[in-house]
Amino acid sequence: MTSDRPTTLLAELTHRCPLHCPYCSNPLEMVRADGELATEDWKRVFTQARALGVLQLGLSGGEPLIRKDLEELAAHARGLGLYSTLVTSGLGLTRPRAERLRDAGLEHIQISIQDSDPEVAEKIAGVSSVKQKRAAAAIVRELGFAFSINVVLHRANLDRIGPIIDLAASLGADRLELANTQYYGWGLSNRSWLMPTRDQIVRAQAVAQEAMHRYRGTMQMIFVLPDYFEHYPKACYGGWGKLYIVVSPDGRVLPCHGATQITTLSFDNARDHSLDYIWHESAAFQAFRGDAWMREPCRSCPRKTVDFGGCRCQAFALTGDAANTDPVCTLSPDRGMIDAAIVEQTEPAEFRYRILSAEPQRA
Amino acid sequence: MTLTLTSRPALWRLARLDYDPVRKRPVLLYPEGAVLLNETGAAILELVDGARTIADIVELLGQRYGTDVTTDVTEYLSDLARRELIRDV
């Protein structure tokens, strides 16, 4: 039994999406439309999450606007007192739709931008999208939503971080998240084309820091160094089963959105169990709580209360065992594979685009 | 950012004050974040409206608690201002 209560629920309402970004955080094997939770299921999940202590709700995907019941779900969330964020590509955010969402009580919209250069942006998204995103941003501003822009950074756009920041400001963002690509699932299978150079990271960090001062008070900026370029791993969501719950489109309840790739775990479904039961009792949520599961070098490391051994998904994806130290840690015996990935850059090549295909794809 | 008695603090446009019925605590909610508040913090933030100065807030709370709260209020709001949750308007 943990005394911790989750603060955030990420509801992945669907994996369907008009974009095909090669770093998508969705799993390689995605849920098809006929496997998605129904409206009443999602409402029950939100109600249970609120009772468990959740304050923040991410309405995410895929592209959540594809769900016709989004307004109904947003209204239910607001009725419960949740602070909701719509995490969207912007595609499909027409003015009438945005007005209905505002009337439903939605407070915050986050739109993804792929690049300041329209050509590269559309190459990354794999679809014509720049015009629609800019129109969506204007609607979000006009209707007075809290407005964030999220940009995933990688080798092909990192040198334009300056123009990207200025674009976000000119679109009227209150907040800008500059998120370096995370190498799980789709990102990992495209790693050699996405991985920046150390020089790029150093230059980008300087540009971001200067811009943070310049935009202070008008646009809040978040820029975190990619973990491959750090000495120690990131404290993934404050530790496993500590603050964060993800519900996948088919109802599986996860400690983080990447957890399904840990194939040695099985995840209970919100169709079968309450969130309260899954949070407190399920084997998957207890698997890496606390530090009893840790091995060396984590077990005796003073940083174990700071970063909790890093990311379990990354440990599994790269070392084959989720209980190993996250290999980005310089104390990990597996750090060499991270250093090798940083130097192993290839010329821009064909991305492996995210597609929800009839046949499951595997890396 | 350090605020002074003449500052006119306002909550960040994206933040709102609410009550968490599960933890039974007032809470400041904003995108991707939440700050659980104690009663004193909530009492200060309830008076933050973009019109009152810090001096006004200090006076109102000083009357309520019967003590000088200048340092408490100024430091509390300056800390939230450094975290960009409070703006000086």
Q: Short description, anyone?
A:
By secondary structure, chain A is of the alpha/beta class.
Q: What does the model show?
A:
The complex is a heterodimer of chains A (363) and B (89). Chain A is of the alpha/beta class. Chain A has a 9-stranded mixed sheet with strand order 7-6-5-4-3-2-1-8-9, with helices on one face. Mean pLDDT of chain A is 93; it is low at 358-363. Chain A has helices at residues 39-52, 70-80, 95-104, 118-125, 130-142, 161-170, 185-189, 191-194, 198-214, 275-281, 283-286, 304-307, 312-319, 335-343; strands spanning 8-12, 56-60, 83-88, 108-112, 146-153, 175-180, 220-223, 244-247, 253-254. Chain A contains 14 helices and 9 strands. In chain A, α1 packs parallel to α2. Chain B has helices at residues 39-46, 54-65, 70-82, and strands spanning 9-11, 16-20, 25-30, 33-36, 86-88. The mean pLDDT of chain B is 94. Chain B is globular and about 30 Å long. Chain B has a 3-stranded antiparallel sheet, covered by helices on one side. A two-stranded antiparallel ribbon of chain B has the order 1-5. The two termini of chain B are 13 Å apart. Chain B is an alpha+beta fold and 89 residues long. Chain B contains 3 helices and 5 strands.
Order of secondary-structure elements of chain B = EEEEHHHE
Strand line-up of the largest beta sheet of chain A: 7-6-5-4-3-2-1-8-9
Order the strands across the largest sheet of chain B as they lie in space.
2-3-4
Percent helix among the residues of chain A? 25-40%
| Sheet with most strands of chain A | 9 strands, mixed
Structural class of chain B: alpha+beta
- Average of per-residue pLDDT values of chain A: 93
Unreliable runs of chain B, pLDDT <50, ≥5 residues?
Answer: none
Q: Helix content range of the residues of chain B, please?
A: 25-40%
The count of β-strands of chain A is 9
For the termini of chain A, the CA-CA separation is 36 Å
Q: How far is the first residue's CA from the last residue's CA of chain B?
A: 13 Å
Q: For the report, how would you describe the main beta sheet of chain B?
A: 3 strands, antiparallel
Mean pLDDT of chain B: 94
| Rounded radius of gyration of chain A (Å) | 20 Å
